[in-house]
Amino acid sequence: MNLAQATVFLWVLGSLQAFEIVEKENIFQRTPCPAFLMFDNAAYLADMSFELPCHCKPEEVSAVVWYYQKHLGSGHTKVLADFDGRVLTEAAQVRAGSDMLVRFSIRMFSLLVFRAQPEDSGLYFCGTREGDYFYAYDVDIQSSEGMVATFKDQGQEPFADEYHGSLHVFTTFWEWTPCDRCGVRGEQWRIGLCYLQSPDLSPRYRKTSPDVVSCGSRAVPRQLRAKASDHAPELLLRSCLVPCEEKKKIQEGAMALFSYVSKVGSRPWLPQVPIQFHQQRLGRGLIISCPGARPEHAVAWDKDHQYLYRTQYLKGVNRSMRVFIDHGNHLHIRFTQLGDRGIYYCWRQGVRIAGFRLAVTSRGRYPVSFSSPEIRATLALTLIGYLLITAVFIAIHLCRCCCYLFRCCPHCSP
User: Fold this and answer.
1) Is residue 95 a part of any domain in this protein?
2) Do the domain assignments include residue 371?
3) Domain finish residue from 94, 127, 142
4) Which domain, by its residues, includes 395?
5) pLDDT digits (tens, 9 = 90+) for 329-382
6) How many domains does the chain have?
7) Is-contact 191 235, C-beta < 8 A?
8) pTM of the entire structure?
């Protein structure tokens, strides 16, 4: 390519980029901001990440600021802005339970909230530094603590709809996830969130259907929200079987190199996925996360050649479970035992992507930390035991004093 052709190519490329920028700006020109601020209702499950786009803004506004209020008109308002040198947050750096001010990011006028918690429910406003609002959302983060699992293979059915006069409470299910394993029997599920229908909703909130919003929406009056509080989110599961895609074979040269390095007459062990080693002390708890997985993803766990199906290992199936999978796709091992040694494989969206080799040891010194849940539970039980013993001791002595008083002073008895 000569100099003239390169110049023409760069000019055409620059024109296309400028056209793309103009098209993005025209989106805001075609979407006028409402004269009266309305709230779009959106519902998510706890630990999910979501994005709130600012659908409209004046042309002269080059940067937006997001605001958060727990209730409409409340005096306390959080300013969510990434100016003044703020570093954009990445989803991999966010921990569950951290404050919302370290779990959000603003990119291209959109607000991203990572690992949302029920405390993040409220009203989100898109505006300027001066406090002028353009667009607003009514976000409902529903907790997964009381989530109910329904297994279709066992003939179970979702909860029936509830009717309280003109109030209709029901579950709205998302699409089915892909099969969480391939080549063998897997599972797929769909998340259902609580919604309600009532003519008594606030008209300031937009609804996807007539008079229908999520159960935790600010459009629902307090008395109606109390009636729908017992309708928990649901998880619908069923079995599936899909074939695996053909994998690329290892090149013959690489196999020859491995054969040369290994012992004569033996074949080296080649892991199919990256393996991470972890050493755990006997009797302590462990939580394993699948890399890059989110609560809405299809995630599965295996221990060596044993498939850990949610039908048996889902949280809440059995209260005495020592090994279980929570609703956020994390694998929990309570009070690690020697039999827990092995490799735990993680599937994501039907593809096995990682492995964790777990070694359990009872030797070595470990520093005692009060942040450990086992240490805190032990201290709490010890303190409760001492309090019970003290209460029994005081009660016995009070009874003896009363008996002695009535014996010495008969006129005091009734």
Assistant:
1) yes
2) no
3) 142
4) 378-412
5) 899 998 899 999 999 999 999 999 999 999 998 765 555 555 555 667 778 888
6) 4
7) yes
8) 0.67
